[in-house]
Structure formats: structure tokens, C-alpha cells
């Protein structure tokens, strides 16, 4: 499967933040399909807390309509989130997206509500600075 334009930017930014990339891509098997989430990563939180595991689906938001890109990403996120919950209950799915698209889309209460009801979590990255700006849970 082709990698998103910002795949390596997000991957490197996670590494800089102390994450270990465990899967590129992270394969998830379902009864009807084998899915590939862009990245699987883990980070040791503290000796007594163990390891935090995440899956990251990266979206570049390069089309003329960021709303349409978000619409497609929400559907994909929902499907992947259910598949991960069925197979890897200790892993949390994040949607990685550029800060410019996030800031534009989340001015709208409908986008905010859609993210809330789908329990979406985000990694917001800066293309310009090539880093992770924030994590939204």
C-alpha cells in the first residue's frame, strides 16, 4: 500500500518523542480483510506502569476539500478502531493530521462532534517544523 506523503515525517517525529516504531505498517487481520494501519509504536511510560501502545493512521489532507478528506478519514478510523479493539485491546488508535487541516476543520462544531462521538484521538503535526505539535484525546 502506498504511504501517505507525510508518513516519514510523522514516523521520525514519533521517534524524536521517544516512541519505538514496532510495525510499519501495523497489520490487523479481520475475518473479511487484512488491514494495514500506517504505524504501530510503543513507549515505556514508567517501570511500574508498563508500555503504552499506539496505532497511527496518517492522513496528508492534500485534496482540494479537507472536509472530504476528513469524511473519508473518519470512516477509516472507525473501521480500524473496531478492528484494533477486537484484536489488540491494549493499543490506542490515533489519526495523525497536519495542523493546518486540523485548525481549519475543528473551527466547525460539527467536526468536533463527529470526532467526539467516534472517540477519535489525534496527533497534530507541523509540516513546516516537521514535528508533533500536540496530542488530542
Report the C-alpha radius of gyration, rounded: 15 Å
Under the CATH scheme, the architecture of the domain at 17-50 and 68-97 and 108-128 is: 3-Layer(aba) Sandwich
Kindly identify the CATH topology of the domain at 17-50 and 68-97 and 108-128.
Trna Endonuclease, Chain: A, domain 1
What is the typical, i.e. mean, pLDDT? Answer: 93
Unreliable residue stretches: none
Query: According to CATH, what is the class of the domain at 17-50 and 68-97 and 108-128?
Result: Alpha Beta
Number-wise, the strands total 8
Total number of helical segments?
4
Task: Describe this entry's structure for a reader.
This protein has a domain at 17-50 and 68-97 and 108-128: Trna Endonuclease, Chain: A, domain 1 (3-Layer(aba) Sandwich). Helices cover 35% and strands 35% of the residues. It has helices at residues 7-16, 66-87, 99-105, 109-117; strands at 20-23, 26-29, 34-37, 39-46, 50-58, 91-98, 122-126, 131-136. The strands form two sheets. It has a six-stranded mixed β-sheet with strand order 1-4-5-6-7-8, with helices on both faces. Strands 2-3 form a two-stranded antiparallel sheet. It starts with 6 loop residues before the first helix and ends with a strand.
Set down the secondary structure blueprint.
Elements: H1 7-16, E1 20-23, E2 26-29, E3 34-37, E4 39-46, E5 50-58, H2 66-87, E6 91-98, H3 99-105, H4 109-117, E7 122-126, E8 131-136
Parallel strand pairs: 5-6, 6-7
Antiparallel strand pairs: 1-4, 2-3, 4-5, 7-8
